[in-house]
Specification:
The chain contains three helices and seven strands. The chain is α+β, with helices and mostly antiparallel strands. The strands form two sheets. It has a five-stranded antiparallel β-sheet with strand order 3-2-1-5-6. A two-stranded parallel sheet has the order 4-7. Helix 1 packs across helix 3. It is elongated, with a radius of gyration of 20 Å. The mean pLDDT is 81.
Length: 148
């Protein structure tokens, strides 16, 4: 059972890292265009379990191939084991109404665009490193013990 947990932690860490690297690569390959911030505020709500959650609500507009678009999802996010809730505050603080910005979009889906990619949270990075080290150590020790 412990071996399965160690393997699960290792797989979770690898999935998180690969997910982030794919999202980062995807973001870099998108077309850059100019835009302007229309709204920037922090939405305060409760999730299905009653836990309070915050989400940056940044609305911006841009023109691509002569057509104007408005979008409100400023961040391309990847899977994270431990998301950074402080990041939502940072986004709202970074983007002010009337501010000119560079954004990235997929030319095949110009209605979807992003101002930035969410970094791996510090906690996710710690979980990834420690979880991977502990999992590998445990699996090596179990394998060594079974070999003896």
């Amino acid at each position: 059972m412990k071996s399965l947990m160690a393997i699960g932690a290792l797989i979770g860490g690898v999935v998180q890292l690969v997910s982030y690297l794919i999202a980062k690569s995807r973001f870099k390959s998108m077309v850059a265009v100019d835009g302007v911030i229309l709204q920037s505020k922090l939405d305060d709500s409760h999730d299905t379990k009653g836990k309070r959650s915050y989400q940056a609500n940044v609305v911006y507009k841009y023109v691509f191939e002569g057509k104007e678009y408005t979008y409100n999802n400023p961040v391309l996010r990847s899977f994270q084991l431990a998301p950074n809730h402080e990041y939502e505050y940072e986004i709202v603080g970074k983007y002010k109404v009337g501010q000119n910005v560079k954004l990235r979009l997929n030319p095949n889906r110009p209605h979807q665009s992003y101002l930035e990619i969410a970094p791996l949270s510090k906690m996710s990075t710690v979980v990834l490193i420690i979880g991977t080290c502990v999992s590998i150590s445990y699996l090596v020790l179990v394998g060594w013990a079974n070999y003896q």
